[in-house]
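Batch job 17 of 40 flagged for manual review because the log was empty.
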Amino acid sequence: MNSSPDGPEQALFGGRFQIGELLGAGGSAAVYRCEDFGQLDAQGRPRVVALKVLHPALSENQALREAFLREAGRLAEVNHRNVAAVYASGLRDIGATPRAWIALEAVDGPTLAEWVAERGPLGPYQAAAVMDGLLRGLQAAHDAGLVHRDVAPGNVILHDVAPDQVITAAAVRLVDFGLADAPGGTVVGDDVLLTAGQRSATTIVGSVAYLSPEQASGGTVGPASDLYQAGAVLHFLLTGQPPFHRATMAETLRARLTDPPPVPSALLPSARRLDRVVVKALATTAEGRFANAEEFRQALLAAVTVRPTDGPTRVMEASWERPSPATRQTLAPVPSAALAPPSTPSAEAGSSLARLIGPVLIAALAIAVVAWIGLGMAGSGSLAAMPMPTAASATPSSTPTPTVSPSGKDTPTSSPAQVQVPALYGDLASAQAALRAVGLEVGRVRITDSAEPAGRVLAQSPASGTAVAVGDSVDVTLATGYNRVPPVAGMSVAAARTLLTTTGFSVPDNASPTLVVAGTQPAAGTRLAVGDGVVLVVDTEPTAVTAEPSASPTPAA
């Protein structure tokens, strides 16, 4: 016997669904993981689905039932891999209360909100991969005449992505079209289904932190509103917090109506290359945003793609191996007359050689860039940690590059000049400036929790003072802006306050320093933003104080 929306029962729900675990519940419906015996595979096994069932109190109302099932009809028109598919819908009309239901694709995985809360902000390339899938799904919905109206991190699921995997666009699923409607509707409390029967024309329905300005003011909503919300999701992915983050709901709503769009790199410098995309998506007026989801997507991909400054891209075959003798024989014999003034016929031969060599070298660099981008979008590890190829690193250092001498013979290049790696401080921009001043580049960029503010340089490799070749890259580690609350139970208030302060948190000074700490709120191990407050829970009874460990700026998770 299994639990069901109505409680224990012997028969299948609706004659076909074996109710399983509860996946979630909202104001209008509950979602269960089910086996659908109405759809069997080739081996006769039932399909696993997510069954969305309208709450009993709402299902008694015919208008609400019809509105609920209209959602299924609208979603069925959106056939796209980045949108959770609708398999079937119907009405279970047994007993006193009919129950409307929708069978959806069962999407297994964390939401974006859960992923970022657990692992911190994404790098620009991983964020771009997520948004690639999200914007493709939105474009499909908009093409079907459907506006989601509640695009938020909690409504985007990463399907079948393991914690150590790179996120790809194919894994993104846009779910919960409970507020979806045709363009031109509003999102205020007198909409059917949006308020669970509590009708109020002054109530704005949706995720407050991600509402578009027109939603916040109760205006009409179109595809541009979804694009604004998608921009807010991108800001969240890059920084770990929604745009216009304020102390109260009223201040948040007011800010998005009156303040300029926020710049994500102000919170995390590594997000700088996506600043313009985020700001355009978060324009206060719909006219100032992208024209559609596809334009948004193309602008996003362009921002994370290395492109030539001008002219068409030429794709040519090239090899990173040492040039063969035949190749050297072809390129090397250059008459000394090639150095003659341009007015002589020999200059034409030199010019022809330049036209031959130039595209080959450019194509080799272009292929290296394309390969790097492909690895970044589909390889292992964080895309934010992929190194940027440079002209100095395009050719393996172990293979000398032949040069053409006036005599027509190959002469190996001299060994590259050496410089000392400088000490890196401040944010990523400061590190880049310090490295470029001595002819070096930033390599892999990693992020980790610490007591330092978001974006602060924590470590570098190679270490400062190391001698490296000009053009080499230096890996850097940046702070996420988050840390975990250390265990302080059994310590004195004074020692606990010192440890919490050194790990990046603020502690109210409202307890005697000699009292003994029983715990903290939030509890030890909780991941918080640096600067957040932690309250000490103290014992008022005298208790022996345990040995107090030395303060550590980064507690173990």
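Reviewer: the log was empty due to a logging misconfiguration, but the result itself is present. The chain is about 30% helix and 20% strand. Unflagging and moving on to job 18.
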